[in-house]
Amino acid sequence: MIKLPDRVVDLLLYSLSAVFALVTALTSTLLPHRAWGAVAACGYLAAALLVYLVRRRDLLTWATWGAVALLPMVIQAVQRAGGRTDRAQEEVLVVEHMGESLLHHGTPYLSRAEIAAIPLDERLLGYRPYQPGMSIFGVPRALAGDFWWTDARIWFAVVTVGALVAAFHFVPSVRALQAATVLPVTALTLATGGDDIPVLALCLLALALIHRGSFAWAGVAVGVAAACKLFALPVVAVLVLYALFTRSWRLLPGALGLPLLALVPPLLVAPDALIENVLRFPLGHGLVTSPAQSPFPGYLISQIEPGGRYLAMGLLGLAAVVIGALLLRRPPRTAASAAFFCGYGLLTAILLMPTTRFGYLLYPAALVFFALALSKDTASSPLSSAARGDTALYRQ
């Protein structure tokens, strides 16, 4: 198998990404995406031209991320604050509405009756299919008003930058960093919507902290991620098994406690509203259907009548059982193996979910590349010498 030099791969990545961004700018039907593409195409092109001129590949990656994700995000936030209504995807508005509801009503969710009272063409925005912790990103706008810096994407980016800087300080890998930052699906998501990116970044940080032996903080990182979005729950499940089989008990309080703690206020204030938003709507039993309909197998199967949705859910459940059996048969005993399980498990779930988005692929892509980086970095881990000397660690 031919292995291309790193800088050749970088050149291909940035060049193809520039083409993708340009095509997006010219053809996308989503105006925030077109705006992203117009700015990002220039950033990717500049990165391609600098591949052989900048000695530090990691610095070029960080700079490129600033040009293709952070800069277009700030531009759109400024334009939106100035009155443009086409400079944010719907999830940004939803998160900001969650923050407002949390501040004024003690719960980020609307009840089914309240959603039914919203005009039909606006009813979709009444649903908030995220975990309660996501509402924190909407609080700045609820408190201070409509400024560029209160845009929920700005706060998504603040958390993302902090988590990624820490994660890649512990596990330096340019290729994994590129997957988490400058890959077009990742950069586009942060600039136009962004709610998935801090969740992903916190999951990567949790894996990096496990790799370095900081189990309590790893639990806090993944626990915060799961308190924001359900997509982090499979990562929590894998890491809980890791903790049980390696006796890393300090990981458990944060990983399990924080998601449960986040549920307490909405359960006390309006439990039916929580169930309507977090369970009924994603499962297709809301007053309106989710627009997340990428043509993956799960979605295509769910369109078969009669009973397609139940068949898709059955396949998803079967996949969960198979992955669970594999986890119990060969439980993860290193951060790398845990990351591989998370990446491939989420990929399977995304492909089989009846309601899904192409952009969700950023999770398995970043996790698998990070797993490869963790595998290569094993020798530098403070746990590695102990792990190699402990035969029980590898006993099946």
Automatic annotation (TrEMBL):
Annotated keywords:
Cell membrane, Membrane, Transferase, Transmembrane, Transmembrane helix
One of its Pfam families is GT87
Name of the featured protein: DUF2029 domain-containing protein
Q: Does the keyword Ion transport apply?
A: no
Where is the protein localized? Cell membrane
Q: Which InterPro entries match?
A: GT87
Membrane-spanning ranges: 12-30, 36-54, 59-78, 152-171, 183-210, 216-244, 251-270, 310-328, 335-352, 358-375
Q: Which family does it belong to?
A: Belongs to the glycosyltransferase 87 family.
Membrane topology category? Multi-pass membrane protein
Top-level taxon of origin: Bacteria
